[in-house]
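Quick one, T. Sequence first:
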Amino acid sequence: MRKYILPVIVVVFAVLMIGSLYIIVKSLPELRGIFQPRQTAINVTLPKGKCLTSLAVFNFRPHGDNSDSKYYAAGFARAFADRIYCAPKHVTQQLSFNEINSAIDQSGKDHTKPVSDDFAAKLGKKLGLSYVITGDLTISGSNADISLCVIDTANPGTKQIHKISGNPADLPEMQSKLVKMAISDMKIKPDPVYAKELLQPNFTKPQVIKLYGRSILSTFKECETLRWQAVNEDPQASFPVIRLLEYYYYGPSSCAELRNSKKLAQITTKSSAVFADNSQMEILRGLLLAKQCKYQEAESYLKNAVNNDPGIYRSHTALAYVANLRKNDQLAISESKKAVGLWPNNPYLHALLAESYNTAASNARHGHIHSEMTRDNEIKWSKYTWLSMQEASISVKLDPDCENGWFQVLDNSQQLGRDADMRRAYSELIRINPRNMQAYTSYAFCFSPQWGGSNAEQEKIFAQAEKAFPRGSYCPLIVRAQSLAYNYDRNGGGSVGGRYANEVLQLADEVSQKAGNDCEDAMLLKCRAYVLNRRRADLLQLAESGFNKWGGLRWQYYYGMGLQFAYEDTCNSAYLKKAKVVFADYSKEVPFDPRGYIQTGWCLSHLGKTADAKAQFLKALKLDPTNESARKKLQYVQ
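Structure tokens:
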């Protein structure tokens, strides 16, 4: 019997170990993703919960003999949406105006025109909304009539319709009455303070409604003028201020233009002083800081916004957005999860959570192939990539037209080697928008030589882009140039894009000729081409000009490189000192990117500050332990 004891003990021990491992893997979804085969089907369970206070307000339908009816209808609908959203803290959860417009356009409609009740209900249900609100506004002579329709997307056949009448001058009072009716229909019972605030109109002069309505159908420059006019005509009203802040955030102004805008500073100061408690304005102020690339300040500001109104999902998404820009993955994941918790059936929020997991995966990988990564980093990369894939799959299952969701599926599929999913994501992106430059560029990158692809496969994608855009468009040239500029043949040696340096420069020149010097993408492409072709003086001149004109971290990084090159060519330490400041500022805004520390350390080492340079290289290696550039530079200063 004794001779069997040891084998039995070994077998029992093995069974216990296997069983324990199985329990651990089954109980931790994050770890389970590492061990399961990547080519198996992705089984996602759609969230069962929903946000009962989620809604969208669509443009009202204009009627009557007044030529300005369409402006009143559009303006009143938006003012009504703002009032029922924040008064000044959140009462409901609403998608941004741009998200609604994009969803309407993707459905084949024109977002500037009103939609039917049936269309609104179907779109609302797809987007995870519990309610949608439509309406009709009639202005004839001195009479104003409004019909408000509140639709429960779970029971679209049952509509709550309210009709009120008055004079156009009574529109503010009519808004308060309709807000009270809509809140009752949605069964929302705000506390006494919020209930009182809800009944205070967010405008007092009807002409601001018309001005805003006109701004929707105007050019960008006219839009700015009209919205400032609305603010000046009703200075104590919150609605025109919100819409002006929105213009600056979603409008065409560059980072540098916003930083130098006295008008923006004026309206920001006004909104902070007069409407300090309005959560919607607070979020927009934080996002405007981010658009000026003041990421550190924006992150701090939005943390306060979250604390002041933790139940509003948009403050969490704004903070997650900025955290992703800073590559602050854990904060981005945390805030994205909170947003999903508030509104679990919103496809955009699952796409944002997928993006946050993707940031964490990118931070673990830092562009390395598997053989170059440490074991710990490879485990982190695998875990977060798989979690990102799962969330992205949920987002596109909830809404097949969710662009950001499909972009996450595309990127994660390439990372995980899931070719079928990668091809499908590309197909869906092109279906949603056949002229999506980013879709062609991202897909072409999937076939870069460093990932085992080939030039022949990329050429097919370039041909598809050429066919999709109008004849003579520079967009296909940008797709081709951006793809080639970051190709890297690991077996052939050389630098990233170096093999294609001449072609990229030729394409950049051609794009510049077609697009002109006001096209930021063309100028950035030219910067990349100058780097590849070692056109050092040209790089500094263009990068400095672009940084002053547009601002932004991409220009800041190129400007720092140009200054470093100028130092190498002239040995003038003034260039080096400037470069150190530029890269130190870059690292302040993006503290989780090792490149900023490496470049700052390089400047410090050449300035003779060895200890400070060493500290910078060690910071980079802490973020990316296998970074060859940081390791070599650290050895040099030691």
